[in-house]
Amino acid sequence: MDDVRRVLKQFWGFDSFRPLQEQSIRTILEGRDSLTVLPTGAGKSICFQAPALCNGLHGNKGSGAGDLAVVVSPLISLMKDQVDALKQKGIAAAFVNSTQDETEKRDVADRIRQGDLRLLYLAPERLLSPKTLGFLRQQQCVRYFAIDEAHCVSQWGHDFRPEYQELKTLKQVFPDAFVHAFTATASEPVRRDIARQLGLSEPSFLVGSFDRPNLTYRMMRAGQKMQQIMDVANRHRGESGIVYCLSRREVDTTTQALRTLGLRAKPYHAGMTGPQRKANQDSFMQGRCDIMVATIAFGMGIDKPDIRFVIHAGMPKSVEHYQQESGRAGRDGLDSECVLLHSPRDFQVWKDIMHGEGGQVALQSLQAMFELCNGITCRHKAIVEYFGQDYGVMRCGACDVCLGELELHDDSADISRTVLSCVTDLKQRFGAGHAARVLAGKSDKRVVQFNHDRLNSFGALADHGPMAIKVWIEQLISQKYLVRSGQYQTLTLTESGRRLLHGKGTSKLTATGKGSSVSAGSGTFFPSSSSLAAFDYFRSGDSIESVANKMSRAPSTVVKYLADYIRHHGISDPTPWVKPETAQRVLANKHLAGDGKMKPIFDHFNGEVSYDEIRITLACSG
């Protein structure tokens, strides 16, 4: 290991290894297959880069000349970034991909023949082409393969790619080479599946800690989402952050809103051209913009250590995705914040998107993410235990649960007993969704079929709705008052649940529609992201009709945006949009609005004054 320590100091400037790096590198030097799981920011790349520069590589020819490490990477941008970084350190590395012309590809091939390269980056499709396999086998130069982002191998993983499964042929084509898999995120079943799919021979499993103690997790019910995002961004003014959105449209509107509010933000999603995405990413990496607003298309391989916050503007589809994306914050070890804004609708949106994709495994991953968002146990503990590790700390001091920021329901005890009573009425033979529909008083086909609309608990929580009730059921499960059991995941009371049903014990349920009390907003007016997207047009003096055309919105919708613009900027003069005499008539009868409804004023004028004129005038009057 002295040789690899020399390499580590010479090329990376480090005097010592991070946790698990030395063990991972040792398996490569000793010539054993391995699977290494190191969370984002733990120095995973060095594990497969450094051994390629060592003279002590298993099976080498003495000087190390001609020993080649082949790195399988899923993205062209990712392999380019890593190769560029290696070249800057003076390391002989190259890639071959579709961005190169034939002359560049031949140059790489010549360097391989001459034994000049130590690291070669390839996408799985190119590596597995008969031409590439034949060439590498003929040269007899490959000493090991490093499969980066190895979770892509497993159908149980969070980013399955069919072409990755074909990598199992490497062990057959190169019997003398060893295969080493690397990923930042994989639960125990996924780890076993990766090893099986790749045909690893008696592999060493090296799994780092999934806990990131410098990250503060907050999971909040989405309310005024744009204000919630701004509250976080304002706590980190001038610092780097990422805002993840579920759709391209939301990326664009959120970016525009942040810019309108004076923040340096840029978008990133698959609907943009390659050069546009690269320019925005470079701007973020080089500090010319503070906030990257993106879909999950952004982030893989991003090596920016000083990201101080990551906001999810919607629930990710798995804990694996969330752990990887939130893990891009605080890679320098300094305190950073991860805020997830979620709503009950997110679950159904993902369920619809994933229809027929991934089957039961994908739904289980989605359910686990839903439980994490709505649970009331320590976020650090929940994430670590999801990946099969123990979390021995009672209170992390770095999540909304342990910091006491959750807003709890005043009637938690009564609601809990009502839910438990319903499960008992159902003879403990039905799942959470069915129980929630019964409690909400939904007379759907299945409820009626089993006569559950006649139960005492039918409609007992009708004021809250099935999704809110389902959240409470999840929270009772997390507190061990209920458990799921059997193939159909039916709800069953635990012993502590039976005691709670009889008034012995204490449960905690979050207030309906609420999450963390932090960043919940001040209650003052805050415009929506759609309204903010129109602000620049109004500021430029565009008419309502012009803005409607430019934004492809109905004029009545644009009037609502205009009313937000007026309130946000404290504009008191409506006459740029409403005739002075009309505005005066509306203001003289403002008292008719009472609770803010415009219809009484509209009726008073018998339709002579439009709703749009009333809305604009009232907005100017405060």
Description:
The protein folds into 4 domains: 2-207, P-loop containing nucleotide triphosphate hydrolases (Rossmann fold); 215-386, P-loop containing nucleotide triphosphate hydrolases (Rossmann fold, 3-Layer(aba) Sandwich); 412-501, Arc Repressor Mutant, subunit A (Orthogonal Bundle); 529-620. Helix content is 43%, strand content 12%. It has 28 helices and 15 strands. It is an alpha/beta fold. Helix 18 (412-425) packs across helix 22. Strand 3 (93-96), helix 5 and strand 4 form a beta-alpha-beta unit. Strands 3-4-2-5-6-1-7 form a 7-stranded parallel β-sheet, with helices on both faces. Strands 8-13-12-9-11-10 form a 6-stranded parallel β-sheet, sandwiched between helices. Strands 14-15 form a two-stranded antiparallel ribbon. It is globular, with a radius of gyration of 29 Å. Pfam families: DEAD (PF00270), Helicase_C (PF00271), HTH_40 (PF14493), RecQ_Zn_bind (PF16124), RQC (PF09382). One of its GO terms (biological process) is DNA repair.
